[in-house]
Specification:
two-stranded antiparallel ribbon, MipA/OmpV family protein, Lipocalin, 55% strand, single chain, 264 residues, MipA, globular, mainly beta
């Protein structure tokens, strides 16, 4: 789900199940799109799936393929998803076409800056192609950021993460969300054509913990669009906002096969 934070830990490799499977429920409150006023609330099924393969992995960094892993450098797959936008629910978009759910996928370079049993700090440089669910391409986006992980926060058993960084995208990506075609212009909503460039900055905070067969997690995201290349679009109603979510899953099945892993 959009906004969920990904991180790695620097724990010593241990034998863990090759896969774990669970299910639960999540609640999230996010804007319809970055810059929209008001929040959209979702109650969603929350699958829990961990796979600790050599190439294909599903863990706290999401479902990914690890193309290269060195002592400090890793190249893997980065992915992200965005919700649909019902224009009838957004005053600024009244009368405009709805926006389909979107997903983004592409390579990410990760470089470890600090690594210890208590703290890991790394730089992540993802570049993703964006599509609607019908596989219509809608541009490119990059979200370089510093990512901090505290794998056992003050001995509590909680894994706490934080990240901060700017966002950038091409014109086609910005146009999908912020263009106003002449046919949809009206008083108070002039025609607008977005440009490429800076897309604002984001800060993520996240925490999760296992309680026996149960997993609990939560996230908080702050976005600031001041100085973004599309900030003058009439579809941008606010330059800053918060998004939040939490969920719980019951892990009901695990693999009998064990593999070495640094992931919990």
């Amino acid at each position: 789900m959009a906004g969920m934070l990904a991180w790695t830990t620097s724990a010593q490799a241990e034998l863990r199940p090759l896969w774990e499977l669970g299910a639960g429920v999540g609640v999230t409150s996010i804007p319809a799109y970055r810059g929209a006023r008001g929040e959209v609330n979702y109650i969603l099924p929350l699958p829990y799936f961990v796979y600790r393969g050599r190439f294909l992995r599903s863990d706290r960094q999401g479902l990914r393929g690890v193309f290269y892993q060195g002592e400090r450098v890793q190249i893997n797959l980065s992915a992200y998803a965005g919700p649909p936008v019902q224009s009838g629910q957004i005053p600024a978009r009244a009368g405009m076409p709805n926006l389909s759910p979107s997903f983004e996928i592409g390579p990410s370079l990760q470089y470890v800056l600090i690594e210890s049993p208590d703290l890991e700090l790394d730089l992540r440089l993802p570049v993703r192609a964006a599509f609607t669910l019908s596989f219509k391409p809608i541009g490119w986006i990059s979200t370089p950021h510093l990512n901090l992980t505290l794998p056992d926060f003050r001995g509590s058993g909680w894994i706490v993460g934080a990240s901060i960084g700017p966002n950038f995208a091409d014109r086609r990506y910005h146009a999908y969300f912020y263009d106003v075609a002449t046919a949809y212009a009206r008083p108070g909503r002039p025609a607008y054509s977005a440009t490429s460039g800076y897309s604002g900055s984001s800060v993520y905070l996240s925490a999760s913990r296992r309680f026996g067969p149960y997993w609990v997690g939560a996230f908080l995201r702050y976005d600031n669009l001041a100085g973004a290349s599309f900030v003058s679009s009439p579809l941008v109603e606010t330059q800053q906002y918060l998004a939040a979510g939490m969920g719980v899953s019951w892990i009901f099945a695990t693999s009998s096969r064990l593999v070495e892993s640094e992931e919990p």
